Structure formats: C-alpha cells, structure tokens
Automatic annotation (TrEMBL):
Organism: Gilliamella apicola
One GO term (biological process): biotin biosynthetic process
PROSITE patterns associated with the record: RADICAL_SAM
Protein's UniProt name: Biotin synthase
PANTHER family: BIOTIN SYNTHASE, BIOTIN SYNTHASE, MITOCHONDRIAL
Enzyme Commission (EC) number: 2.8.1.6
Family under the similarity heading: Belongs to the radical SAM superfamily. Biotin synthase family.
UniProt gene name: bioB
SMART domains reported in the protein's UniProt record: BATS, Elp3
Summary of the function given for this chain in its UniProt record: Catalyzes the conversion of dethiobiotin (DTB) to biotin by the insertion of a sulfur atom into dethiobiotin via a radical-based mechanism.
Length: 347
C-alpha cells in the first residue's frame, strides 16, 4: 500500500519498520508526503494562555501543575472573562488569528462552564479562532462548547496504552479516548498527540502514533512534545531523548497522518536552530509562538522570527485549521528585528 495513502489500519510491525529506515530515507519519504498536502515553507503559529494555573488533582508525572508534586508553582484561580478577552485582543494585535486557552484541572465543573463559554464567545467576537484544553469532557460539555463556537479542543493521549499507567494513574486511557470521541461527535476539531522522553520505548512511540492514526478521523493537529523536565516532578531527572529519535517521531507522524498538522510543541526551547530546521524538514508545520507555553518557557518571539527568516519560512494564512499569525505582522516583526540587529553594538 502506498505510504502517502490516508489510512486507519496501521499495525505495529510496519510502523516499526518505518521508524527503523535509514535516516535520510525516512526524512525523504516524510518530506515528499508533506509536500503533497502542504506548502513546505509555511508553518502554523499559535498563541496559548493559561486561564487557570496549578493545583491540578491529576498525578501526571511530567506536569508542574499537579498537586501531587512540589514544584513551587503557585495556584491561581480561573481568570476573569474580561482578562482573557484582553489577552486575546493583545494576541490579535500582533497578528494571531487563533487563541488557545488551557486550564489545569481534571475536568471543568458545572460552575466553571458558564465562564468558559463566555470566554469562547468573547474571543470569537474578536474574529479569532478558539481552542481550549480543559481535561476530560462530558458529552453535554462538548456540545455546549461547540454551541459557543469552540473550533478546536486539545486532549493529548501522552503515550502508548501500554506505558500509560507508568505516567498517570488518576485518569484512564479509555477516558481520554472517550473525550476525543465526544469532541469529534460535537463537531469540534481535535488536537491530540503525546510526549517523548518519559522513559518510553520505541514500541511505545509507535503504539501512540497507531492510536492516533487509527482513529476514524485523524486529529487535525498532532502536537509532539519533548519532555520539559521540571524540578519537583518525578521525571525531573529523566534521561534526555536523542535528538535524532525526536526527529524520527515527527517524520513517522507525518507519514502516518499526511493531512494533519504536526506541531513542534513543548521542549522547543531546548532545541537549537539546526534541530528545529530538521524538524520542519521532517514534516513539522506548526509551533507555539510566544514567551511561555502554559507554565514552561518557550523560545522568544524574536528568535522565532529570526529562524523563520533564515529558513525562508513564513506563517501560514490558510483559513482551514490554521494556527497562523497574519503574515504582514510577522513581516513587520522580521523587518524590525533586522533593523535592530543592524543598529545594535556587537558583544
């Protein structure tokens, strides 16, 4: 069967074979498929705001926001609706067209829902696309968010079903899949991926991608995270993943889900420019843009702009599941960056 076919019947043996291709062959296949569905020099760009930080009851071993780990992160209440809308306005002012809102909890309560719905409506009223990540959802909550105008919902599977219990015990894999099913049924687009570097095996990485690619419809966006090791979490001293193994994960994800946006997500700050360039070559075509990614840092905006300029990449302006910033705003930012570099002293 052709590698570029849209499939939902992947099996472990063939995925392992793809992972183990010579590196140049793997990248060539991924880039060839990528160019059949996307402009290879366009990248989606998202803005993300933490609307409720800390004191999450889940015990995810990687997370700085879990109440089970002493990371020094202070608990914050759900932000006021107007504050969220003001943040969205600021994001739009620099060109963002989608605004993602994340809350640290197991699931939204009935008390929280009216505020969340108003946030969605308020951001939509600005002419922006909306995205949320709120934990588990009930069927009614999914429909309520859809009715309010939510465009995307993020709910990661994190890892393979087999390795999952080594990372999280307070939420089942089946519950995650059920939330994705409710979101899809409600007509909301799905953003779902996983995390590398938690001690998983190559087989676990393959099985994670199989779970995603064998869904009835592929997620519109697949974030691949490189573990951000936070002091106080059980994974703080986990061994770093080999950079080429991370790039392989991106490439295999691109091959298995040709039409999905593959997002280079958390952990990007630890990647040098050369690794990020390889990630784009492997088929990654979406990033988070800004100084913070929920509670962990993200490469500064000017660094992103400078890298885009070096690589000849520009933010995508598509209306279809785009995380882009307006091209004119980015071009202006790039121009200012170049001017600042020319006028500043060398150190």
């Amino acid at each position: 069967m052709s590698l570029n076919a849209i499939r939902h019947d992947w099996v472990l043996s063939e995925v392992m074979d793809i992972f183990q291709l010579p590196f140049n062959d793997l990248i060539f296949k991924a880039q060839t498929i990528h160019r059949q569905y996307f402009d290879a020099n366009k990248v989606q760009v998202s803005t993300l705001l933490s609307i409720k930080t800390g004191a999450c009851p889940e015990d995810c071993k990687y997370c700085s926001q879990s109440i089970h780990h002493d990371t020094g992160l202070e608990k914050e209440k759900l932000l006021e609706v107007q504050r969220v809308i003001e943040e969205a306005k600021a994001a739009k002012a620099v060109g963002a067209t989608r605004f993602c809102m994340g809350a640290a909890w197991k699931h939204p309560t009935n008390r929280d829902m009216p505020y969340l719905l108003e946030m969605v409506k308020g951001v939509k009223a600005l002419g922006m696309e909306t995205c949320m990540t709120l934990g588990l959802l009930s069927q009614l909550q999914a429909y309520a968010l859809a009715d309010a105008g939510l465009d995307f919902y993020n709910h990661n599977l994190d890892t393979s079903p087999e390795f999952y219990q080594q990372i999280i015990t307070t939420r089942t894999y089946g519950e995650r899949l059920q939330t994705l099913a409710y979101v899809r049924e409600a007509g909301i687009k799905i953003c779902s991926g996983g995390i590398l570097g938690m001690g998983e095996t190559l087989k676990d990485r393959a099985n994670l991608l199989i779970q995603l690619a064998n869904l009835d419809q592929h997620p519109e966006s697949v974030p691949i995270n490189n573990l951000v090791k936070v002091k106080g979490t059980p994974l703080a001293n986990e061994k770093d993943i080999e950079p080429f193994d991370f790039i392989r994960m991106l490439a295999v994800a691109r091959i298995m889900m040709p039409k999905s946006y593959i997002r280079l997500s958390a952990g990007r700050e630890q990647m040098n420019e050369q690794m990020q360039a390889l990630a784009f070559l492997a088929g990654a075509n979406s990033i988070f843009y800004g100084d913070k990614l929920l509670t962990t840092s993200n490469p500064q905006v000017d660094k992103d702009n400078a890298l885009f300029l070096k690589l000849g990449i520009s933010p995508e302006k598509s209306q279809d599941y785009s995380d882009e910033v307006h091209k004119d705003a980015i071009v202006q930012a790039l121009t200012e960056q170049v001017q600042n570099n020319l006028s500043s002293d060398n150190f």
